[in-house]
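Job type: complex structure
Entries:
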Amino acid sequence: MIAVPPQKRFEEAAAPSVGIEVHEKAVAALRDRELELSQLLDMVPSLVWRLMPDGEPTVFNKRMVDFLGLDVAAIDKPGMTRLAAMIEAVIHPDDATAFADALGRCIAAGEPFAMRHRLRRADGIYRWMSSRAEAMRDQDGGIVQWYGLCHDIDDLMQAEEALRRGRQQLEETIDAVPIRIWSAASTGGPVYFNKRYRDYLRSVVARPEDLDEPRIDRLLQELVHPEDAPGVMRALQNTSETGGGGVMRFRWRESDGVYRWAECRMEPRRDRGGAIVQWYGVSLDIDDEVQAQETLRDRERELSQLVDMVPSHVWRLTPDGEPTFFNKRMVDFLGPDVADTGKPGMTRLAAMIDAAVHPDDATAFGDALGRCLRTGDAFAMRYRLRRVDGIYRWMSSRAEPMRDASGRIVQWYGLCHDIDDQMHAEEALRERERELSVLVDMVPSHLWRVTPEGETAFLNKHMADFLGLDAADTIRVDEAMATLFHPDDTAEVNDVFGRCLATGEIFSMKYRMRRFDGVFRWMSGRAEPLRDDSGRIVQWFGLCHDIDDQVHAEEALRRASDRIAQATQAASLAELSASIAHEVNQPLAAVVANSHACHRWLSADPPNIERAKITAERITRDANAAADVVSRIRALFRHAPHARSPEDVNRLIGEVCRLMADEIAVKDIRIKTALDPDLPSVALDRVQVQQVFVNLIRNGIDAMDAVADGARALQIRSCRDGPDAVRVEIRDAGTGFKDPERVFEPFFTTKPHGMGMGLAICRSIVESHGGRLWTANNESLGATVAFTIPLAAREAS
Amino acid sequence: MSPREEIVFLVDDDARVREAVGELLESLGWRAETFAAAADYVASAKPDLPACLILDVELPDINGLEFQAQLSRDIHPPIVFITGHGDIPSSVRAIKHGAVDFLTKPFSDADLMTAVQAAIAQDREQRSERAELDVLRQRYLDLTPREREVLPLVVSGLLNKQAAAELAISEVTLQIHRRNVMQKMATASLADLVRIAERLDIPITHSRRAGGAERERA
């Protein structure tokens, strides 16, 4: 390799120019020119070089030589061209191969060479160069020389690199920012989206080709919630027209098809003249926030509604008692004037109490609330509060303090519940209860209540007074209960009431009850159970009414009515006999008168035979008439028609016993029945046979009048009498019959007031049914009357 | 035996009894007229003879006792009741109101005859008394008005002087009137006149002892 200083090379290059003078001149001129050129070449702020057509470097300008700082010849290496050696020495190893290839290719093809590469400076630092080379050709087109230039572009490259890196950083930042960013030259034009935005769009836009040149309006139409779209479009248009920035909130459709709230902010960038150059926008997902806000708003609205809708008055006080809040209901109640009242010289609370609390309650209210405010105790009070219409209503008010973490009272929260109706209801209830209580005590009857188990739970005053008890003294009440009833009634009352308790039947019976002075009085007792909804008996309520006077009166009445019945019987008998007598007497009177007349006519002088005969005939006629009357009466009695129907004899006995229950009770008679449950029904005249039972039972009762109290027992027995008759026996424990056969004679009686017809009638009734009736004295005591009635109806013969 | 100038009325609803009792009355010699009802009896014309009314207690149109009460307002023959079943209260009432007898059917001819005879005798007496009274009444009617004024004063027992003062006439004039009254009334003594005045129901208007004495003092 030859290391040639560039001046020398130019000298060499100018050598072919010849001529002496001219030549000298020319040479001088040429030399000047060459010098100038050489100076030019060296002064060009670039590295200039020349190669032979085969690539052999021939010239480097000074600047290049200075830059490289090496002797070209010194780097020549055997076995390689000077160019290759140079490349190895000065081109950055990373660029060397490409450089060598490119240059080699250009030299071979004769094409211009251009390349950027790093070149080693004298101080060993590589600097970026932009190298260009072109071939100079002769007239034949053959390459004569290659001229090259190396322009130091290192600073430019550095700047470019920095710029590139900056840009990349920016893009990365933009893409990394967790928001969607867009920009556009105009709101109608294509848009730039950051990666995040693009990713999103790709996931939601139906046609990806729309993203090749995305346009705002189209995307908005597709993605914004239909409800929000018109507003967004309007806002967008407005923004673009005015050129002002804007904030829009709307719902985007997300990849999963759900709309989410987004906030879009956009602002224009303007040039110096103020014209809009570019629009920039960000789109933030604020859905969670919006939802949270919405929820919060809902909650707040709800709470506020709750506070206002709570059917109570809600209020709040500061720790020193200054009212700070009333709910709407309370404001409505008090009226706006009172709620906002204020008076000079007194606190707002005091003014409110003065205005709204009933004067009778105001002091107590103020004191109580004041005390609570001081001590922090919960406040509770009932008082009257003035409504806007001036009416005071009862309120039940409560307030409690809210404390902070340190226990200091922050607020007082109070509630004021309208209990006016309740108070009135309670008052009415109390009044009613008092009235009822008075009623229960004043009712002139004995009222009582027992538990379903039969424990006495309550006696009214009347009953307690009757028993001589204090109704509250339960122990003595229980003791009194044990001996409450007449010894003769105790067993039956317990029996019947026990059955009622067990079955829930209504209790109703008459019994004697001991008064405080030991006197037994007749009572009519009734009790009914109170049942709950499920039908279970909760309580028994009873009433017992003193009927002692009534019982005695009834007895007296019954005696009177018996006497009247007897009298009526006697009267009707008298009437009957009078009627019979008249019927028979008329013809008899005629017979007697005629016979006297006949006698007179015959005794006359001379005897009037004619008239005697006439009268004698009349005697015969009238006597026959009398006989007719008699037979008519007999026929009348024999042919009394009676309705007969099949009857249960046992039931008849039961009916009669009930019918005569009062009489039996008053006479203190025990009835014992022994009834054959399998008796067939018997065709009989119900009323007549009832009459037989009444007569026989009454006979039995009357027969025992003289017998000692405990032994008055009447036995009634029914049974079959052979295959086709029924027998009934009534057995008393009385005095018995002195002459059992005479008792059937009419008008025979052993009783002081008797008609003496009873047994006679009974016998005739039984006989009219085809049966028999007889009496017999018992072996020990009393008598038995028995009768039979055939099953089949049979007329008396 | 010819019927006496006496008549017996019989009211009974039973035709056989009417017939038989009518026959018996006739056999006893009375003229008998029978009626089935009280109204028939009332409506009939009755001869002016001593009479007797036999009345059944049980009549179809009216109770015999009530009919008796109706008849008592007027002059009527004495009543004999007959009845099929006499009771004591009815008979007592009948007798108290003037019935002659109360016979229970059947009755004997003797009882009937006794009762009817008693009744007719009573009627005869009543009839003669009524005739006598008629004469006295006529005599009274024949007195002048002044004499009818004098009569009560005289029978009251006033002295002539007192009676004259009462009528504001002289004692002499009064004495003339008194003599005329005595003559016209066909009485011989003051006692007779007093008795007649009593029968005629002339009221004694002045008491000599009471009114008269006081006047004398005045």
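Summary: Chain B touches chain A through 22 residues (CB under 8 Å). Strands of chain B lie at 7-11, 31-35, 51-56, 79-83, 101-104.
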